Amino acid sequence: MMPSDSSLQFDENGNLKHFLTINGLPRQTLINILDSAESFINFDKREIKKVPLLRGKTLVNLFFEPSTRTRTTFEIAGKRLSADVINLSASRMSTAKGETILDTVRTLEAMHTDLFVVRDHASGAAHLIASHLPDHVHVINAGDGRHAHPTQAMLDMFTIRQSKQEFSNLTVAIIGDVLHSRVARSQIHALNILGVKAVRVIGPKTLIPTEIESMGVTTTSDMVDGLDDVDVVMMLRIQRERMDGQLIPSEQEYFNRYGLTEDKLKFAKQDAIVMHPGPINRGLEIASNVADGSHSVILNQVTNGIAVRMSIMAKLMGGAEDRSEDRS
User: Fold this and answer.
1) Is this structure's pTM higher than 0.85?
2) pLDDT attached to residue 72
3) Edge-to-edge strands, sheet with 273-275
4) Mind listing the pLDDT tens digit for each residue in 261-278?
5) For the purposes of burial, counting CB atoms within 10 Å of the CB of 211, is it exposed (0-12), middle (13-18) or buried (19 or more)?
6) What is the DSSP letter of 93?
7) Ordered DSSP codes for 110-122
8) What percent of the chain stands above pLDDT 70?
9) How far is CA 273 from the centre of its chain?
């Protein structure tokens, strides 16, 4: 069972030390990350797209599970903060030869690594690594099993705030394969901490966890009811690689019932935004004319991912403070 509190994430002075899960974080910590990301969002317009915040620091992207999009945005974020960035994938590491994950991390830490960005198929991998490192080394969870993907949730929150300004009056629908989605779990925690009015989970019963309502959401298998008067529509990827058995009758039937089309989107508010963490399965989770349409902020999410990950890295490495008095 994963830790529900955030005690491992803060140092003795109340500063954020690791970024492992949204669950248990105070609202002010999330707001601080979003506010800090605002200062990084326009870096693409600068002639020199770098600041020296992490100059002389070494960042290792430790990906035991493939993800081009997430790894690339962490690499860009690290380089824009002037860190030395090393990318390691499972196929190139000694774990493929039998070395344990902790042996690999300790070896890399002995080479004076300052920050590990960890992605693994096993839930709790980032927590395990963080609990075995000295105090001056930091860990960011880039996705662990079905448990959490906190930086994705934060870039989603940034994108929502960019479009809607405030969270308190929003109704948000999360649609699709919630059962296998670490993104959905982190999104639900973040949305509730930030105080949205309501979170709805929509999908076939086979893809909705039985305990999900305990996280403060309502569930439905009806797209029309679920999308009624919604401000934000968050689509999820169908994770075929994690499915054990036939959980959907067919891809065509799934799209007919739960794929986001222009006709279904009409039940949401007129100014609703459409999101997807990617990669998108067009014609399965979402129609192309919706993914590329005027309601879509999917590419904004990708752009915002760099700024938000810069913000989190800077915060962990001393670029921003998070005092214990904020931890209420």
Assistant:
1) yes
2) 95
3) 218-220, 198-202, 171-175, 232-235, 273-275
4) 999 999 999 999 999 999
5) exposed
6) S
7) HTT--EEEEEESS
8) 89
9) 18
